[in-house]
Amino acid sequence: MFKSRLNELCQQRRWAPPEYEVTREGADHMPLFRATVAINGKEFRSAEDGAWSVREAENLAAMAAFERLSAVPAPLRPAPGELISPPASIHLECSPKMRLQIYCQKQGKQLPSYRPIYEGPPHLRKFKSVVMVDGQEFKSPEFCYKLKEAEAAAAKFALASLPQEASVPVLKVSSLSYKNVLQEFAQKERFPFPLYNTTSDVPDYPGAYKSTVEVKGLIFQGDPGNSKKQAEMNAAKVAFQHFKDSK
């Protein structure tokens, strides 16, 4: 399984564990799954034609990440006490599909589901996509030559059509990957691996997440985040600042 091999690669290179996001499309009796895995500030996706199970989709995303990352030589380790920020070249802008998924999570709605529309012969097929959000359907305005592009167009159209409620609180966002920083610090100090506990039960913050992290027997809680990953980064920041200040 490429998921296991990818976990081992992350441990060898002192990266945070892989984080998977899965989307489901199609009819209930014949669902199709696609997965995205985030590693060290970069995202890798499963094949465009999808998979028939969540496990298979995650494994395909892990395969794409492992083949790309294992071909790159391991970076030199930092000197003791040196902290490395993420490279400036990392592309942090979310795709329309990811932004729509975050929107649904913030609003407490079910995740978007996509349905393809085909036109033309098999060798010259064109695509549109319909995305369903909270019982409403939004269709991509034009045909595309790739299903991925049609889904992105449908997600973009949905985002432009859905109400953007001002009452949704703006949660704190950390640009630095404090999970990576905390993990490197724990390894340097020979602490146990940080353990995260994340929940979506956050009063007054619908669709948000909160997380705690345990390091060397101490538990730290961060600010709520718009995603599980962000909540864990907020908790990691609190923990890292504590140990940094104590030293």
From TrEMBL:
InterPro entries named among the record's database cross-references: dsRBD_dom
UniProt xrefs under Gene3D superfamilies: 3.30.160.20
One Pfam family linked to the record: dsrm
PROSITE patterns registered for this protein in UniProt: DS_RBD
Domain DRBM intervals: 1-71, 95-164, 177-245
Repeat in keyword set: yes
UniProtKB keywords: Repeat, RNA-binding
Domain of life: Eukaryota
GO molecular function: RNA binding
Function: Binds double-stranded RNA.
Protein name: DRBM domain-containing protein
Organism from which the protein derives: Eragrostis curvula (weeping love grass)
